[in-house]
């Protein structure tokens, strides 16, 4: 069954909004649908959802198998253990941690807590769309600001649109779908200048792939003294647990309590509570995944350069690349050849987003790329 991720987001958020007695705002139907996220037994190669193509580490996989025996139990027994371990990793007290069913639930609770009833949500365009869809269901005023020519958040333009009605500012860094960075020093200056009403949600889903540099530093690894900052993380990417659905926020206890009101009861499962603990401790595997990704990313750029292509510089486990032709035609070409790549992003409708797969999957990607009728005629810079 083919299911629209956007439709899913609207239904999930809409149900929670109804429970809170908020009027739902009509949302236009999505322009296209995404395929279901089934396994690869169907012969398809999945390079479209920015997952860890290598799966969970052997230790985490063992923990998941062992945890099957607790599938009949609610996760409450281990819930606080996970919170305490995440708190310890980030050197904060447990009351600073909020768990979510993936980091998308963190985005939903933030939207409901801080962008509802006509408050303003400010975000980049394009960026991860979940925050906009959740905010629409609670009648937020949406302000989408195009990225700069270098694919960073246009912080000056975002600041110019902010006012005392601004409730939530969303920063995805590294950004999805462009895989690009916004400089840490620029973000600090931006946050300091925002109106006091604006809560800042920094989505660090791809943090592990970014690497430390003068441009980038996590707001968890190097926090600032500002209680209006929320940082979201997920176990879906480097830990290879996208299907298990666990994310979290680190914020001030006051902010956490405001968001917790909108969390689902029993919002994480018993298996992932046990796998998460192992994943956090399995630092060797995490380093291995990061290195594999760096190698796979470099090989993608090597192959692109050999074809006179110039992808956007990537700091994630995916790459966005201008084809200089309608993206939908390229997407369908790959689909006909059993490779799923990222959906079309209307703001960049000649670009494709390619999640990095295993080496053999990327070889298949380039073989199919070379079958494009225009692939050898797009030397642009």
Provide a short characterization of the protein structure.
The protein is α/β, with parallel strands linked by helices and 381 residues long. 38% of the residues lie in helices and 14% in strands.
Structure description:
This protein is α/β, with parallel strands linked by helices and 381 residues long. It has 2 domains: 40-55 and 284-369, Aspartate Aminotransferase, domain 1, CATH 3.90.1150.10; 63-281, Aspartate Aminotransferase, domain 2, CATH 3.40.640.10. It contains 13 helices and 11 strands. Helix content is 38%, strand content 14%.
> Uncertain segments of ≥5 residues (pLDDT<50)?
1-39
In this structure, how is the largest beta sheet organized?
Answer: 7 strands, mixed
CATH architecture assignment name of the largest domain:
3-Layer(aba) Sandwich
- Fourth-level CATH superfamily of the largest domain: Type I PLP-dependent aspartate aminotransferase-like (Major domain)
């Amino acid at each position: 069954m083919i299911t629209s991720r956007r439709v899913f987001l609207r239904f999930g958020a809409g149900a929670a909004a109804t429970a809170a007695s908020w009027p739902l705002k009509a949302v236009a139907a999505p322009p296209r649908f995404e395929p279901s996220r089934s396994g690869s037994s169907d012969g398809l190669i999945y390079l479209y959802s920015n997952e860890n193509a290598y799966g969970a580490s052997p230790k985490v996989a063992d923990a998941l198998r062992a945890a099957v025996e607790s599938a009949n139990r609610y996760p409450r027994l281990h819930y606080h253990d996970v919170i305490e371990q995440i708190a310890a990793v980030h050197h904060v007290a447990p009351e600073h941690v909020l768990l979510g069913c993936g980091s998308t639930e963190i985005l939903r609770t933030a939207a409901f807590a801080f962008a509802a009833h006509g408050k303003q949500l400010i975000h980049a365009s394009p960026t991860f769309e979940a925050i906009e869809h959740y905010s629409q269901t609670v009648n937020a005023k949406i302000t989408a600001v195009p990225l700069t020519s270098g694919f960073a958040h246009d912080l000056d333009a975002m600041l110019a649109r902010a006012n005392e009605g601004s409730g939530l500012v969303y920063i995805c860094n590294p950004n999805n779908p462009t895989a690009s960075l916004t400089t840490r020093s620029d973000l600090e200056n931006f946050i300091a200048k925002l109106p006091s009403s604006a809560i800042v949600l920094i989505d660090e889903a791809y943090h592990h792939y970014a690497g430390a540099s003068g441009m980038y530093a996590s707001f968890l690894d190097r926090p600032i003294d500002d209680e209006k900052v929320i940082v979201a993380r997920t176990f879906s990417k480097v830990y290879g647990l996208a299907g298990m659905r666990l994310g979290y926020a680190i914020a001030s206890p006051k902010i956490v309590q405001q968001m917790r009101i909108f969390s689902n009861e029993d919002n994480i499962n018993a298996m992932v509570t046990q796998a998460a603990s192992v994943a956090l401790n399995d630092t060797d595997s995490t380093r291995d995944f990061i290195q594999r990704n760096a190698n796979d990313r470099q090989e993608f750029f090597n192959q692109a350069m050999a074809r006179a292509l110039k992808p956007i510089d990537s700091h994630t486990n995916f790459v966005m690349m201008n084809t200089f032709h309608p993206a939908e035609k390229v997407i369908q070409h790959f689909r006909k050849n059993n490779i799923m790549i990222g959906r079309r992003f209307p703001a960049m409708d000649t670009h494709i987003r390619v999640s990095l797969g295993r080496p053999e999957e990327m070889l298949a990607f380039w073989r199919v790329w070379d079958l494009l009728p225009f692939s050898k005629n797009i030397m642009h810079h």
